[in-house]
Amino acid sequence: MIARMSHDPARASAIADLMRAGRETSRLSTVLRYAIAERLGLAVSDLECLDFLADAGSATAGQIAERTNLTTGAVTSMLRRLQQAGYVTAERDPADRRRVVVTMRPERIADLERPYERFAERAERLVEGYSAEEVRLLVRHHDRLQAMYLAELDHLRGDGTGQRPA
């Protein structure tokens, strides 16, 4: 962990507390996702794929590979499992028959949402206690964190282009 020291001890302490809280939130989020995936009889990468599709509506197998950081071979196996479990459909793209478009089956969305319901209700109550200005600050913070995550993923994947090394 790299930390820059602030000349203001109260600010330095607050920043250290924020970084610690962020790491713990990330760890707990990971543990929760593993527990939810296990409850649904899925691998965590399967759950990540389904969450992505629930937000995106549909995506190509290549987009799913990029989003989940899996190889195309691993994505092919994952999509086969998810199709057999009835979570997704996979159809050839009529505009480009080499591509496969994957879509979440609408009748399975409730099954995916159910394990999150209690947490979502509690999170909604938590956010209700914030002012609009505080919520906008949190949104900006999360937007910036997402951009940092994406940049770091590009860096880790190789040459900064997001392409895996050969």
Structure characterization notes:
The chain has 166 residues and is mainly alpha-helical. It has helices at 9-40, 44-56, 61-68, 72-84, 109-113, 117-128, 132-156; strands at 58-60, 88-93, 96-104. Strands 1-3-2 form a 3-stranded antiparallel beta sheet. A hairpin with a 2-residue loop joins strand 2 (88-93) and strand 3 (96-104). Helix 3 (61-68) crosses helix 4 (72-84). It is globular. The mean pLDDT is 90. Residues 11-147 form the HTH marR-type domain.
Q: How far apart are the termini?
A: 30 Å
Order of helices and strands: HHEHHEEHHH
Low-confidence stretches: none
The spatial strand order of the largest sheet comes to 1-3-2
Note the topology.
Blueprint: H1 9-40, H2 44-56, E1 58-60, H3 61-68, H4 72-84, E2 88-93, E3 96-104, H5 109-113, H6 117-128, H7 132-156
Antiparallel strand pairs: 1-3, 2-3
Helix pairs in contact: 3-4
Summarize the structure.
Residues 11-147 form the HTH marR-type domain. The protein has seven helices and three strands, in the order H-H-E-H-H-E-E-H-H-H.
Features:
single chain, 166 residues, mainly alpha, 7 helices, 11% strand, ArsR-like_HTH, MarR/SlyA-like, WH-like_DNA-bd_sf, DNA-binding transcriptional regulator, MarR family, DNA-binding
